[in-house]
Specification:
By secondary structure, this protein is an alpha/beta fold. It has helices spanning about 75-85, 100-115, 130-135, 165-170, 185-200, 205-210, 210-230, 265-270, 275, 290-300, 315-320, 335-345, 350-365; strands spanning about 5-15, 15-25, 30-35, 45, 50-55, 55-60, 85-90, 120, 125, 145-150, 175-180, 235, 260-265, 305-310, 385, 390-395, 410-415, 415-420, 425-430, 430-435. It has a domain at about 65-365: Alpha-Beta Barrel (TIM Barrel), CATH 3.20.20. Strands 1, 2, 3, 4, 5, 15, 18, 19 and 20 form a 9-stranded mixed sheet that branches.
Length: about 450
């Protein structure tokens, strides 16, 4: 394995910026110092005027394999992730077939072992009748990121709405339980009422149908279950101001039993954007009125919201061009999440230290990821170099998602990812990929 020295860079880590060198040896961070000289043969990477950050770990992506590979594959989307500085991902179970058994779960790990350029983990899925398979995941708590529960609308039979099943999952799972929280009954009632009122629906109706109440009631229910059993609950993609009253910043993250995620699209878009982008920003939970976005930013900065993710969910352009009711919900975002947050760093809305905390450190802490998410000696060398003065514009020719489109097309970021190291391997450098080494299965300190 090649040995690297990243020289004269600004290291952003654990709330600080320090200038110096980082030595990468045998896939690990060997040394961090103001200056490193080594007699061993090393490849020098000039980090002058750049930031070195730990690679982002995205705790919620949909890479669509197996079964939906016309949209995406683990290879194509991990490649896009790497180009965007995301060195690890946790992927969801709503593939075809859904991941309801241990055999199907391990099949996905095998695909990733052979094709994923980034490090990986996969959630075990839940249905209304697979509790035995879910509880078997307890035996793999050191090597599986968590259990996913759709407590609201989803695809196929992934919706878990049986109270007895929810009781068994929250009482029996020893892993982190990640939930998609939207109340199905409220959504159906809103949908029917709006159809009765106006007939044909349009994208701007999406946040009216999937409204604040639907999100709050479901999140509140999940928290009630978690408090009843002291479960480790992580609520995904918080999108409303109302839900924020359910979360606290009174404890250090490592001590929290209930945590929350916010996604980049809910920090960036508002319901005003449906007029231009239409179904391109249709997602679940919906992008909502501007006051929600402002509240999410405040909660992110004061640590009521713990991590930033993407909920990367690619669909084909044709699937997004259907009429509102049939257009698929989800946005492809994993290639551009770090750059989007760096846009807000440039605007002064958030510090780069806070971005690193929320996209790397906090995810590692929240999921107890072993030896990743920080720039520490002995840790895996999952590292990203950022040039804050190298603008780039999202365009068809530089989009790496298999679906080939982005809701951010035409947007110019002020900063670029120049290098991505994964397990000490320079996978991406100045636009060039080295795919000779795959990512690794992430492990967990549980």
């Amino acid at each position: 394995m090649k040995q690297y020295i990243i020289k004269d860079t600004c290291i952003v880590n654990e709330g600080e910026k320090i200038y110096g060198d980082v030595l990468i040896k045998k896939g690990r961070i060997e040394k961090i110092a103001a200056s490193i000289d080594t007699k061993e043969k090393s490849i020098e990477v000039d980090g002058t005027d750049q930031f070195l950050i730990p690679g982002a770990i995205d705790d919620q992506v949909h890479f669509r394999e197996p079964g939906l590979t016309h949209k995406a594959t683990i290879y194509t989307e991990s490649r896009a992730a790497v180009a965007g500085g995301v060195t690890g991902f946790m992927e969801m179970p709503n593939t075809q077939p859904p991941v309801f058994t241990q055999e199907l779960l391990e099949n996905k790990y095998e695909i990733a072992r052979n094709t994923s350029l980034a490090n990986y983990s996969f959630f075990m899925g839940t249905s209304n009748d697979n509790i035995e398979e879910i509880l078997k995941t307890n035996e793999k708590k050191h090597e599986v990121c968590g259990v996913k529960v759709f407590m609201g609308s989803s695809t196929g039979n992934l919706l878990v709405d049986n109270p007895l099943m929810l009781d068994k999952v929250f009482s029996g799972s020893e892993l982190l339980i990640a939930t998609h929280c939207e109340d199905e009954a409220i959504i159906k009632a809103n949908l029917q009422a709006l159809k009765n009122q106006k007939g044909k629906l349009e994208p701007s109706d999406h946040p009216i149908i999937r409204n604040e109440e639907a999100c709050f009631e479901s999140s509140f229910k999940a928290i009630q279950y978690a408090k009843k059993y002291n479960s480790r609950l992580h609520i995904l993609h918080i999108s409303t101001e109302k839900e924020l009253q359910l979360f606290s910043n009174m404890l250090p993250l490592a001590d929290k039993r209930i945590t929350a995620e916010v996604c980049v699209h809910h920090l960036h878009f508002t319901s005003d954007d449906y007029a231009v982008l239409g179904n391109r920003i249709k997602c679940n939970p919906a992008i909502k009125a501007p006051h929600n976005r402002e509240a999410l930013w405040n909660a992110l900065l004061d640590d009521r919201l713990d991590v930033i993710a993407t909920d990367h969910a690619p669909h084909t352009w044709e699937e997004k061009q259907e009429d509102y009711e049939h257009a698929h919900a989800g946005l492809p975002l994993v290639q551009h999440s770090i750059q989007l947050m760096l846009h807000y760093v440039k605007e002064g809305r958030i510090s780069i230290e806070k971005v690193v905390e929320k996209m790397s450190h906090a995810v590692a802490t929240c999921f107890q990821v072993k030896e990743r998410g920080f720039i520490r000696e002995g840790y895996h060398a999952d590292l990203v170099l950022i040039n804050m003065n190298q603008p780039n514009t999202v365009a068809k020719e530089n989009i790496l998602y298999k679906c080939g489109w982005s809701p951010l097309e035409g947007f110019t970021f002020p900063a670029s990812v120049t290098h991505t190291f994964i397990n000490g391997h320079l996978v991406y450098g100045n636009g060039v990929f080295d795919e000779s080494q795959m990512g690794e299965r992430m492990n967990f300190n549980r």
